[in-house]
Amino acid sequence: MFLVKRDNFNKNFIIKGLITAILLSAFIYLSYFDIEYRFINTILGLLGLYFLLTIPRKAVFIAGFATGILWCYWMAISLKYYDLIFLTPVLLIAIGFAYGFIFLLFTLYDKIYFRIIAIFAFTFIAPFGFNWMKFELLFIDSYLGTSKEDFALILVSLFMMAKLKRMKILSILPLLFAFSSQSGIYIDNPDAKISMPQLNIKQNLKWEKDYQATVFKKNFEYIDNAIYNKKDLVILPETAFPTILNKSEELLAILKNKSYKIDIITGSLYLENEQFYNATYYISNGDIQIAKKLVLVPFGEEIPLPKFFVDLINDILYDGAQDYSKAKKPTDFVINNQKFRNAICYEATTDKIFENLNDVKYMIATSNNAWFTPSIEPTLQKLLLRYYSKKYNVTIFHVVNGSNNFIFRP
């Protein structure tokens, strides 16, 4: 009898943890299937946070484990391109345990007010430099706002709901102040007429030497088509030219020649002083400007660990390859007398790339999502870009290989 009760007790923890994880992740998967109803997302988001605040401590670890996998399982998809697919279960378990322990820290002192403080503090933290688990995103397609102030009001409302024995109706008051109508959007367009070709080159082909001539030919066709349609600017995605472009005189000569008819922005690698950079090339009237990536992808482009472990991991898993180098500050391009902040993939979803915007109202973000498709990664990235566009009042032109292009307006 005791064993039966204990099994039921453990199952209860597991069920509560899994339900919490599903509620905290539902908005991503609904968006993936183009199901975006503000009422549904509002209710699911509030329920997910309420459960996280009130479920037993043992269930919180399960919630974190499952939430981590539901939000980040796509990281494992890229392993096949490094011939490391055998590490998929290891990576998924590591992701689960990492977020399980992070969630468990919310209950270090197991009182609801401590959980509220810890969860709010987590919105300012990026473990290992990775910040894609943002609880504010729960309400990106809801009737509630996504600012820090709005999130604090939501947590206060849930605290009142949990603690008030009578007059629970009062818990609605903070939500009224966090209400967001999301109406009256001002659509601001730059003067430049922009071409954003949609690329869908598979990652396993992109860097094959025998296929590169095809990639280059297609890129030039996109540029020529933009010229034919009398565009001012054509944007190609991250590493659209899968080579070290500044070491390819032939390719640069062609691009420079075409740049007298249209401004060109394209992604490629850049080599300088024996350091490799993930970079954006802006080519106009034969001149070239280089924007080096400022924020590298943790464990993808750099390993955020002490040098001994970095060298060891690179030697064992990446055949001794070195991490990318990075810029010291953001880069702005002036196109048609208007400034555009450059961002490459992950950095477009970090606060650092938005520093010192001053009069910059536009951002050109380029990505290569072929690493992670098919998965929810492009959906999560899209939601994050919407969040940052609104947060910093910047229009983002997102040009992608492997998933859909978008323009995000505040």
Automatic annotation (TrEMBL):
The keyword Cell membrane applies. It is a multi-pass membrane protein. GO terms for biological process: lipoprotein biosynthetic process. Keywords: Acyltransferase, Cell inner membrane, Cell membrane, Membrane, Transferase, Transmembrane, Transmembrane helix. Residues 197-410 form the CN hydrolase domain. GO terms for cellular component: plasma membrane. It is found in: Cell membrane. One of its GO terms (molecular function) is N-acyltransferase activity. InterPro entries: Apolipo_AcylTrfase (IPR004563), C-N_Hydrolase (IPR003010), C-N_Hydrolase_sf (IPR036526), Lnt_campylobact (IPR059110), Lnt_membrane_dom (IPR059109). Gene3D superfamilies: Carbon-nitrogen hydrolase (3.60.110.10). The chain crosses the membrane at residues 12-31, 37-53, 60-79, 85-105, 112-130. NCBIfam families: lnt, PRK12291.1. Belongs to the CN hydrolase family. Apolipoprotein N-acyltransferase subfamily. This is Apolipoprotein N-acyltransferase. It comes from Poseidonibacter ostreae.
